[in-house]
Sequence to fold (223 residues):
Amino acid sequence: AQSVTQLDSHVSVSEGTPVLLRCNYSSSYSPSLFWYVQHPNKGLQLLLKYTSAATLVKGINGFEAEFKKSETSFHLTKPSAHMSDAAEYFCVVSDSTPLVFGKGTRLSVIA
Amino acid sequence: NAGVTQTPKFQVLKTGQSMTLQCAQDMNHEYMSWYRQDPGMGLRLIHYSVGAGITDQGEVPNGYNVSRSTTEDFPLRLLSAAPSQTSVYFCASRDRSGTEAFFGQGTRLTVV
Fold:
């Protein structure tokens, strides 16, 4: 069975400092992994996806994530936070049909 | 190309009422799913379908019913609404290759 654990429910950073949102997954097969972002009262937007190609995945808005099979991790990073990055972020795994979501990490950006 | 269309966007129901949340996609995707989103719980899978005529239960199926008579449509039925079903509901579709899922804009349901 597949599952996702987002290690922090809330992360707060200052504008201009790095962002790290942590995600560990469990999967029986070689999974596909995703990060989605949800701004307040909005829908879900795909940030980036890993589907067994390069282990370092670049996404939109300067975000990237690294797939580490040995650590079963897929952490999301950004070198410099912007106020517009404040949102809820979801790590998602799929090794079969339905996507399985983590509980989410709320990112706050302080001016 | 509309993507995934959910209706309605907002709905208020009384306890015990029934209703259907509509979901339609125009991308010819085989896989469709319904999720509910509650604070601190992420998105939890209610039901999903791998093609017309085939559905299966997810993590939280109780109180909900689905059918998939066409590739395009995947309605979610609330049989007898309860306050615990107050939530935001998202429909998603993806193709067989299993890459990106496309989401509807969500339905905010309140049961009073």
